[in-house]
Amino acid sequence: MRMRSLLLPGPAALLALVLAARLGMSPLKHFDLFFHLAGGRFVLEHGFTRVDPFSVTGTAGWVPHEWGFGVLCVLLIRWLGAGGPALLVAALVSANVLLLWKALGRAASGHRGLLALAVLGTVLLVQAPTWPQERPFHVGHLLFTVAVLCVQSWRAGNNRILWVFPFLGAAWANLHGSWPLGPALLGAIAVGSVLDAPGPESRRRAVRAVAFSVAAFLAAGLGPDGPAIYLYPLHHSVLESTQGINEWRPLDLNLSWSWAYLALAGATLFAVGGAPSRKVAILLPAAVLGIAAIKVQRHAPFAAVLLALALLEHATRSPVAEAGPAWRRTVKRLDGALAHWSARARGTPWPALVLAALATTHVMNPTPVEQGVKRAHIPLGALDALRGLPPGRVLNPFVIGGLVSFFAGPDYKVFIDSRNDPFPLAIHQDYDKLVWGEPGWEEALAKYDPDYLLWKVENPGNILLDNLRARGGWREQARDGDYVLWVRERPAATTRP
After folding, report:
1. The pLDDT of residue 320
2. Which residues have a Cβ under 8 Å from the Cβ of 178 and sit 6 or more positions away?
């Protein structure tokens, strides 16, 4: 019986198994990965710098706050080839699914039946759009779930678990910009716990938890960014250029996952409203982050976790009478069967075994990055042609700046890239003028004085191409799918000042 339990995967383990296999075998495709790779490689080779090494326009300074993710991906590529970042994402997503299931089980007092599974599914629907993207917010999702498990343990009486938070804060701050959520969660839970159970002992525990929350926040400054990291999340969020990025915009009802989030929020309100008592400890952070996610959709994957916990902590399970309607008896049997399956299943190592098998395959036969990318998304031909030309300034679209920095190298200075914050607002405004052919685009072009143009031919890219074609002074060097590489034709005696 024990051996069968060890081999039997539960519902979350089965899902994690599928995700591990699918994501672990996916080609690299997201543009942002490559500026992380370029940054990680630069840090390994040259160390840290506040001067942007990839452009001449990034005069606001480089804050490589997610340098740990880039360095980790570079090291994995050296060991596993192109499969390294994909396996990292697969491991992070799979581990998050398994730990979420554990956290939801605790919130449901150990009864992981139909309601817990439905709530898990809804949370994962909110997070699912991020899965195909090789970006560091997978680390943020996982570490947030770890923080949730820690506060659950603390609420159950484990005071020693608080020592995890300073270490969590230090690691998290060097991997993903969502790190303030860890200290904020602990502090909000501590305040809420006093409101739930006033008394001297409750206050003493809460004060200690708040102290560890502050320690976790301060520990974030132990990284190479130092104290500058404390204000960076706020500074980045209020940048005018940030407001134009999709994930920093309000919840978009044209996206299906937004409706899943709203459905979860509505179900949580219903469960809380029908509960005989309310637990402020979970409601306080869930309400704050839940509202913030409506304003900034980037917060929704984190807020969904807290809404799910609040729902399960307040949901009441009334026993279904045997003489009730047939559908209720059927639901009760299914709920009991699922809860029994979840309680018996101990086969959580299966996703890890799949990832280990894939890692072994890559170790034995690592795939070069150029062969492991999704060719339809990455203009490798144009990038290779650029690399064969003398270093210079490259006028490029926002999304492929990281591709230029990684595949061609930092000597090819991009105009802009999706790091966003190193570039002053004036550069973003000049970029919009160039893209849309707005008045002042010629002055923006002359100010940057590019040697090369790596641009997309599709609308609106054709606007700049048509304008430059009419002016003359450029020749096409290479064409790769939707992208073209043009070279500036300069007089032989012309030199850059």
Report:
1. 47
2. 137, 140, 143, 144, 172, 302
> Three-state SS for 480?
strand
Token pair 């970006």 is found at: 135
Cα separation, 16 vs 352, in Å, equals: 9
Cα(35)–Cα(58) distance, integer angstroms: 14
pLDDT band of residue 324 (cuts 50, 70, 90) is low
Q: Among positive and negative, which fits the CA dihedral 328, 332, 335, 337?
A: negative
Cis ω before 460 (30° cut-off from 0):
yes
User: What is the H or E stretch that residue 452 is in?
Assistant: strand 452-456
Residue 86 tokens read as: 């994909």
Measured in whole angstroms, the distance separating CA 45 from the mean position of its chain's CA atoms is 25
The dihedral through the CA atoms of 142, 148, 151, 156 has a sign that is negative
Residue 422 · residue 62 · CB < 8 Å: yes
Report the alpha-carbon distance of residue 229 to residue 188 in Å, rounded.
Answer: 21
Task: State the SS3 of 28-75.
Answer: ECCHHHHHHHHHHHHHHHHCCCCCCCCECCCCCCCCCCCHHHHHHHHH
Closest residue by Cα to residue 143 from 201, 103, 84 = 103
- Per DSSP bridges, beta strands 474-480 and 452-456 are unpaired
Binned at pLDDT 50, 70 and 90, residue 37 comes out as: very high
Query: Of residues 290 and 321, which shows the higher confidence score?
Result: 290
Q: Is 6 helix (H, G, I), strand (E, B) or coil?
A: helix
Order of all β-strands in the sheet with 474-480: 413-414, 393-395, 452-456, 483-488, 474-480
Contact between 215 and 165 (Cβ < 8 Å):
yes
**Cα-trace Rg, the chain:** 26
Would you say 33 and 141 are in contact if contact means Cβ atoms under 8 Å apart? no
Largest CA distance in the chain: 95
| Locus of tokens 């089980």 | 105
pLDDT tens readout for residues 75-113? 999 999 999 999 999 999 999 999 999 999 999 888 888
Q: Are strands 483-488 and 474-480 parallel, antiparallel or unpaired?
A: antiparallel
Q: What are phi and psi of 25, to 5 degrees?
A: -105, 10
* Residue 340 DSSP code: H
> Cβ contacts of residue 65 below 8 Å, gap of 6+?
173, 174, 177, 223, 225, 229, 232
Structure token digits, residue 304: 């969904």
Beta-carbon contacts of 301 under 8 Å, excluding residues fewer than 6 positions away, are 126, 127, 130, 137, 141
DSSP classification of residue 484: E
| CA distance linking residue 212 with residue 165, whole number of Å | 7
Return the beta strands (E) in 46-154 as ranges.
none
Instruction: Dihedral sign for Cα 252, 255, 259, 260, please.
Output: negative
Q: Are 66 and 36 in contact (CB under 8 A)?
A: yes
Q: Judge whether 381 and 478 are in contact, CB under 8 Å.
A: yes
pTM of the model: 0.92
Burial class (CB in 10 A: 0-12, 13-18, 19+), 123: buried
